Amino acid sequence: MTLLQVQHVMKVYTTRFGGNQVEALSDVSFSVDSGDYIAIMGESGSGKTTLLNILAALDKPTRGSVLLNRKNIVQIPEKEISAFRRNNLGFVFQDFNLLDTFSIQDNIFVPLVLSGKKHKEMEQKLKPIAEKLGIEHILTKFPYEISGGQKQRAAVARALIADPELVLADEPTGALDSKSSDDLLQHFDYINAEGQTILMVTHSIKAASHAKRVLFIKDGNIFHELYKGEMSNEEMFQKISNTLAILAAGEDGNA
Amino acid sequence: MRNSFYWKMAADSIRKNWKMYFPFIISCISTIMMTYIIQALSTNPGLSEIPGGENLKTILSMGYFVLILFSTIFLFYMNSFLMKNRKREFGVYNILGMDKKHIMKMLAFETFYIAVCSMIIGLIAGTILNKVCVLLIRQMMGADVALGFEFSSEAVVWTLSFFIIIFLLILLGNISQIRLANPIDLLKSGNVGEQEPKTKWVLSIVGVLLTGWGYYIALTLQSPISGMPYAFLSAVLIIAGTYLLFTTGSIAVLKILKNNKKYYYQTSHFIPVSGMLYRMKKNAVGLGNITVLSVGVILLLSIAVSLYIVSGNKEADSQYAGNVISEVRLPEDADETGEEIKAKLRELIDQTASETNNTVTDVSSYTYLNLVTLAADDGFEVTKDAYSMLAKQSPASLYLTDQESYNQLTSDNVSLDENEVYVHGTDDEYTKDTLSLMDFQFSVNVMEDMEEFSLDNETTSLISDTYYIIVEDIETLRQIEQQQKEIVEDYAASTNVSTQISLEQGADEQQEIEFGEQLRSHMEQEGMEIVVVDSRTEAASDLQALRSGVLFIVLNLAVLLLLMTVLIIYYKQTSEAYDDKERFSILQKIGLNQSEIKKAIKSQILTVFFLPVIVTGIHILAIFLLMRKLMILVMINQVNLFPISVLIAFLVFLIVYVIIYRITARVYYKIVH
Ligand SMILES: Nc1ncnc2c1ncn2[C@@H]1O[C@H](COP(=O)(O)OP(=O)(O)O)[C@@H](O)[C@H]1O
Ligand SMILES: [Mg+2]
Fold first, then answer.
1. What are the chain B neighbours of A79 within 8 Å (beta carbons)?
2. Cα gap B127→B152, rounded to integer Å
3. Which one of A49, A201, A204 would you pick to mutate in the ligand 1 pocket, going by the greatest count of ligand atoms within 8 A of its CB?
4. Could you tell me what percent of chain B has a pLDDT over 70?
């Protein structure tokens, strides 16, 4: 079943002074099925964050539409958009974005509290997720007391707690050492295996090799697409590397 | 590196940190301005010419010291805010290879810029405002309003040398801070990772107890004058309690709220409670400062308003029934009775009248003795304890006169037997049949409608219990005086002859003053021990001068404190806004919309703002009675208006406060956004 449809999305940034325009996305279309695990790869400046922000309804595209469960999120009025985000989307950021005023448990509760859920319900939801991510023992700690890997797992718990349709992750392994990265990607695999749809933006080949499908973005366009199929992580890694090499070569050729 | 480099660098750095420097420069300018004005007024030659002007100048020069003290504290405090925010920047310079000597040199250039700018602007503004003040004071004191430009070079020199010292001290303090710190410390200061504070129950309870104790003293203290050390203790207790309550009590309350899961996990409580708890450690002292300063502002303002109310009513100032009064001490040698002195005085008065072309319409004299005692079971006890500031019991003031004086004064016809007295209490009548005073035993007749003959009755009777006592004759009075001298020694009171002289209607102020001066010189020639010779005009002018002087200084201090409060709030809000910026941007990403963010910010700012106001209000209520007792000294019979003064002061304060709230809330929102 198709969960997300991105249709001819274009994004032009107009700088405030001088009015010169930057086309961050020119014409992006793709769709995501329920239970998919997608990685979007591209060099820095290729428009990944811009795309993710549009999918997250944090920003509006200049043109095009984004349908989540056949509902165009571009047209959701400003007032309802936060609630929509809380109820349908989960976020994992490169720099964790945990609030240091809250304990880990309270950080995870934030989306539920904002939705006005009962405390009992929150506790019930937290338990299995915390177990799954192996963070039960740090729930009462504060962000400055735990490691980066633990912080990112807490952030994943926060992304999952409201049972979102789609988890969006922007460079989730970007600030982690390689062991913590492996660990986090492992958790993403489990979560996806349980049916959670994940869309991840990354420029780490290793991270992308865990995904079922990899989209390559360049100069604001989807340039190429890879399916993992029955490949192992290592084989996928090799394939992505090759693709990136071709991509780079193409650039050299153009130059 | 050449000096021109430092000039440029210092100027750039002030411009870059303008948000931080602006309030500091404002503080410098206003303290310089106020110091200059008070100094210029206290040396203003024009003020000496109006009656009471000399007194005013004396008071102003005393207030000058208080102002200097406050200015110094204030500027150092503001500077500490500034340095806290700038240390990070210095740390970066240091790591980038600018050594400490250069940083210090740059700091010196910056200080120089600020000092020169604020001195120039402060003196210009001071000169203008000084003129306005002179005009206002002259008007208040009823002198002609003279226009013209006044510039006091003496005041300029004093103000400048004083502030140059302050700036040097501040610079030295900053330099030594930089020198002692290592670059990593410098880098870290400004954003130290705050841990969630722990609840300190014992300290919270101590805070409650201290505040309660302070309130108790304030509410039960009989006389703030004689009990001055207790009033002071009460102030110290309340201040200490306030700081404890803010630092530990607020955390305890927030923790309780947080532990109540039903309450805490609600959208409208979750963010503010956690946010406040998180930074209460840093915040609490600031809130305490704001509260203590606010109480100070309101008290000073209410005193100023009271003084203003009273000064509008000149007639009420004249305590004297006559135009001129004189009071002399009855000499020690016992053979001279009061009658002789009275006759001699009468002679001098007639002589003075003819010399000054005045007609005396009435002269009334009486002999009296004023004792400060403690009430005892069977009368009054004369003891040194009655003069002690630490006395548990408030003293009773006794005015004793002989029946002949009383009869002359009132044209009554009381007649007493030996060892018999008439007694009248101003607050409560004396209820016992006998009255013992040292070795004397009197049988008591209560006389409710006795004339309260002493001049300063209104003031004293409001501060302490006052009793008027008529004894049989002047001999008894003198015996009491003698015995009292042996007990209290240095504190001993003497028997005085008080005379009120009424001049013919239409005698003007000048004639009154002239009469008084002439009479005084005659009395001096006769070798009389003068207690006071005063004219109604002089007394009123002196009082008026006292009031306008005190009013002026009090108003200045109030403005200074208010400015301090405002700037502390401003610094606090801006630095917190920078802290919160990231927090709110994360919340927005997770799913908090604009209006929800606005609501959260509002409830947080509101708490930070109005918690101190509420505590201030409670403090003011608690010390109101004590203040009222103090204000009796100033407002005398108009003390009923004191609540209105407090109300006006509170309103003025609140208006300023709300304006500041509006401004800082906008600044805060702009930064967070
Ligand atoms: N707010 C913005 N205003 C103007 N240009 C922007 C803005 N955000 C991104 N861009 C530009 O859009 C392009 C894509 O940026 P981004 O989506 O951040 O790329 P990536 O995340 O792949 O590194 C870049 O050229 C960037 O400079
Ligand atoms: Mg990016």
1. 593, 595
2. 8
3. A49
4. 85
Q: Give tens-digit pLDDT for B220-246.
A: 887 766 677 788 888 889 989 998 998
Query: ipTM score here?
Result: 0.84
For residue A245, the Cα-to-chain-centroid distance in whole angstroms is: 24
pLDDT of B622 over the 90 cut: yes
For residues A215 and A222, the answer to whether their CB atoms sit within 8 Å is yes
Tokens of A130: 């915390």
pLDDT at A157 over 90: yes
**The two three-digit tokens of residue B308, written as one number:** 């203003």
d(CA B292, CA B269) in angstroms, rounded, equals 28
Interface test with A, best of B585, B590, B598 (most A CBs within 10 A): B590
Average pLDDT rounded to a whole number, residues B525-535: 76
CA–centroid distance, residue A154 to ligand 1 (Å): 28
Give the residue on A whose Cα is nearest the Cα of B193: A144
The answer to whether A155 and A180 have CB atoms below 8 angstroms apart is no
The full set of domains in chain A, from first to last, is 2-249 (3.40.50.300)
**Choice between A50 and B182, residue whose per-residue pLDDT is larger:** A50
Query: What is the C-alpha separation between A176 and A148, in angstroms, rounded?
Result: 6
Do β-strands A37-41 and A213-218 pair in parallel, antiparallel, or remain unpaired?
Answer: parallel
Whole-number Å distance between alpha carbons of B110 and B6: 9
Amino acid identity of B530? I
Report pLDDT for B190: 47
DSSP per-residue letters across B41-80? HHT-HHHHHSTTHHHHHHHHHHHHHHHHHHHHHHHHHHHH
Task: Choose among A97, A103, A122: nearest Cβ to B589.
Answer: A97
Tell the residue nearest (CA) to atom 24 of ligand 1: A45
More confident residue, B372 or A31: A31
Say if the Cβ atoms of B277 and A101 lie within 8 Å.
yes
Contacts of B512 (CB under 8 A, 6+ apart): B323, B324, B503, B535, B536, B537, B538
Which residues on chain B are in Cβ contact (under 8 Å) with A93? 589
Q: Is A20 close to ligand 1, i.e. is its CB under 6 Å away?
A: no
Per residue in B96-145, pLDDT (tens digit) is 777 778 888 888 998 999 999 999 999 999 888 888 877 777 776 666 55
Check B275 against A101: CB less than 8 A apart: yes
